[in-house]
């Protein structure tokens, strides 16, 4: 199918829901006209260059040949077009060649790219994270030497964390860094699951690697962050010989076939320390937090693509009689269950989009938005990627049997979406982070302030007849979130709180998502008073449908959160064995 960049929906979310105008003081050069121009140009690239490669990339995939990784056909040319367009450096510091635009606008652009071709977009997404980590923790020389090439896209960046015995538990990392006697280090060890860890799209690949010094203590306090590169870099920035690192294979995966997931071997690779020894995990979290928000928007992008394809199919496929028009052999779009499914797909996609963009906006606001950003980041990552999987699955359902056939392409979206709840910290880990760390920040002030702001929206909704139902459902959702928040705060670190963590994240995501749609509906209701465009009516319907289909479950979610862990503790493996 033909992909259409959802530029209008993105601009609506940025201006009417998220409120990007709040950034005018910090980013005076970024007004509505700039946002429109950037989104339209990004849409052209997404539609004309990236989207046509999505299906071919899935079919052919990346290849491992003669000790090297070769990108899927057409990807190298597409990457050059991406880099030459300046898309890698949208939010990067102008001092290093970036455009200095808000992260919020950059994230909107990357949603377009993920929707067009998520396997491709993972490459510049990781480079973004490397840029942010080096900008925050690198020394002056490292910034001057590496950042301009990363920001321009001439080089790409990756992070090397996971090892066969160290997945989510990074304290078990065993890759070692030995001093070379000249102020540098040599890396020895193996990393797995390294996304875009090797390829032939750029001149060099900069690796940020977690490793241990010889005298490092056990656990996370013994981890340091090192910078190494596929090809050695001279002090003048010139590329030298190949470094002693490289891929020993790529994984054969369920989805994202065109994104090479590499096993990288370090055999004495020359490296340099980034920041202070023993602080590697904290430094890497700069990159990981950036990646988590970007993976959240990956879920949104895949959901958007799956929704578009399902809608197109529902308007084309004819089956049965329409209950509304009486037409025989009607479009399946005219069957209430199919139309409800499509509307719920769109509602959840728009809610997830707004959650991710709101999180980015909080980051752009700096210290004033730090608490909001901290609270929302695990929600943005986990809730949005779950939405990506759900919407892609519903898209398959709309296609019926044809969705299970690979030729339609609907199955690819489901397969591509499924990794997002797993990597960059599984969604279960995001829930533990929310309950164990983020909820407790300021003794719960972050979540309390968030829910209080939603209370104000409820009061405004109550004054609009068409949105009174939304107000009632959202008010009940806030009450459920408030009750569970206080219950969890009182049990921080206890088994009962950990058992309810995933349910709590889902509940908070539902409530914040409903709030986002309600804000859009309020704006649309005002526009609908003077403009008959059905676009505005649809925004109102989406908020109402989400309120009835999702927010009505808030009480049940809350009951599950506070159920506790006693039943889990009571059942051991012997009780579950066949």
Count the beta strands: 11
Q: Radius of gyration in whole Å, from Cα?
A: 24 Å
Q: What gross morphology would you assign?
A: globular
Distance between the termini: 45 Å
How many helices?
18
Largest sheet: 7 strands, mixed
Low-confidence stretches: none
Element order: H for helix, E for strand: HHEEHHHEEEEEEEEEHHHHHHHHHHHHH
Helix content: 55-70%
Mean pLDDT: 96
Count of spatially separate domains: 3
Quaternary structure: single chain
Instruction: Work out the strand percent.
Output: 5-15%
Q: Strand pairing plus helix content: what structural class?
A: alpha+beta
Quick description:
With 578 residues, the chain is of the alpha+beta class. It has helices at residues 7-18, 32-60, 75-84, 103-137, 140-152, 280-316, 336-364, 370-399, 410-417, 427-438, 445-461, 468-490, 495-499, 501-528, 534-549, 554-561, 566-570, 573-576, and strands at residues 63-65, 68-70, 155-160, 176-179, 185-195, 204-212, 223-229, 231-233, 239-242, 245-250, 261-274.
Helix and strand arrangement:
Blueprint: H1 7-18, H2 32-60, E1 63-65, E2 68-70, H3 75-84, H4 103-137, H5 140-152, E3 155-160, E4 176-179, E5 185-195, E6 204-212, E7 223-229, E8 231-233, E9 239-242, E10 245-250, E11 261-274, H6 280-316, H7 336-364, H8 370-399, H9 410-417, H10 427-438, H11 445-461, H12 468-490, H13 495-499, H14 501-528, H15 534-549, H16 554-561, H17 566-570, H18 573-576
Helix pairs in contact: 1-2, 1-7, 1-14, 2-3, 2-4, 4-5, 4-6, 4-7, 6-7, 6-8, 6-9, 7-8, 7-14, 7-15, 8-9, 8-10, 8-11, 8-14, 10-14, 11-12, 11-14, 12-14, 12-15, 12-16, 14-15, 14-16
């Amino acid at each position: 199918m033909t992909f259409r960049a959802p530029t209008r929906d993105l601009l609506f979310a940025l201006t009417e829901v998220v409120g990007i105008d709040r950034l005018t003081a910090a980013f005076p050069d970024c007004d509505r006209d700039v946002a429109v121009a950037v989104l339209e140009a990004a849409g052209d690239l997404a539609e004309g260059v990236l989207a046509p490669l999505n299906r071919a990339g899935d079919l052919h995939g990346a290849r491992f040949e003669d000790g090297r990784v070769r990108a899927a056909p057409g990807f190298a040319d597409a990457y050059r077009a991406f880099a030459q367009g300046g898309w890698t450096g949208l939010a990067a510091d102008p001092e290093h060649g970036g455009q200095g635009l808000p992260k919020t606008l950059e994230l909107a652009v990357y949603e377009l790219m993920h929707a067009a071709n998520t396997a491709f977009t993972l490459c510049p997404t990781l480079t973004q994270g490397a840029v942010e980590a080096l900008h925050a923790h690198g020394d002056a020389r490292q910034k001057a030497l590496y950042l301009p090439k990363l920001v321009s896209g001439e080089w790409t960046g990756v992070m090397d964390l996971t090892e066969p015995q160290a997945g989510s538990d990074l304290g078990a990392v065993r890759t070692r860094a030995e001093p070379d006697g000249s102020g540098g280090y040599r890396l020895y060890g193996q990393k797995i699951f390294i996304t875009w860890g090797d390829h032939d799209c750029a001149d060099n690949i900069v690796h940020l690697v977690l490793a241990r010094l010889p005298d490092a203590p056990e656990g996370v306090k013994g981890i340091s962050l090192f910078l190494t590169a596929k090809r050695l870099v001279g002090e003048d920035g010139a590329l030298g010989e190949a470094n002693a690192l490289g891929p020993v294979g790529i994984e054969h995966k369920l989805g994202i076939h065109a994104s090479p997931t590499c096993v990288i071997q370090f055999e004495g690779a020359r490296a340099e320390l980034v920041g202070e020894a023993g602080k590697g995990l904290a430094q890497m979290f700069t990159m990981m937090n950036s990646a988590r928000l970007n993976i959240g928007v990956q879920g949104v992008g895949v959901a958007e693509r799956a929704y578009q394809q399902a809608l197109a199919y529902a308007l084309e496929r004819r089956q049965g009689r329409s209950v509304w028009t009486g037409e025989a052999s009607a479009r399946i779009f005219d069957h209430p269950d199919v139309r409800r499914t499509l509307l719920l797909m769109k509602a959840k996609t728009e809610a997830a989009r707004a959650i991710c963009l709101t999180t980015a906006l909080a980051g752009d606001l700096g210290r004033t938005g730090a608490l909001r950003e901290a609270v929302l980041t695990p929600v943005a990552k986990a809730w949005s990627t779950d939405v990506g999987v759900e919407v892609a699955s519903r898209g398959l359902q709309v296609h019926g049997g044809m969705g299970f056939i690979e030729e339609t392409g609907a199955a690819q979206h489901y397969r591509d979406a499924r990794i997002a709840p797993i990597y960059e910290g599984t969604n279960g880990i995001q829930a533990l982070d929310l309950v164990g760390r983020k909820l407790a920040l300021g003794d719960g002030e972050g979540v309390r302030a968030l829910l209080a702001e939603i209370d104000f929206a409820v009061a405004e909704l109550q004054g609009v007849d068409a949105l009174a139902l939304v107000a009632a459902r959202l008010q009940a959702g806030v009450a459920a979130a408030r009750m569970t928040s206080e219950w969890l705060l009182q049990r921080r670190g206890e088994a009962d709180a950990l058992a309810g963590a995933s349910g709590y994240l889902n509940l908070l995501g539902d409530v914040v998502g409903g709030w986002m749609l309600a804000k859009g509906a309020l704006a649309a209701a005002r526009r609908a008073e003077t403009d008959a465009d059905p676009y505005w009516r649809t925004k109102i319907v989406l908020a109402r449908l989400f309120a009835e289909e999702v927010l009505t479950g808030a009480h049940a979610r809350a009951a599950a959160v506070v159920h506790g862990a006693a039943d889990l503790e009571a059942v051991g493996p012997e009780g579950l064995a066949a």
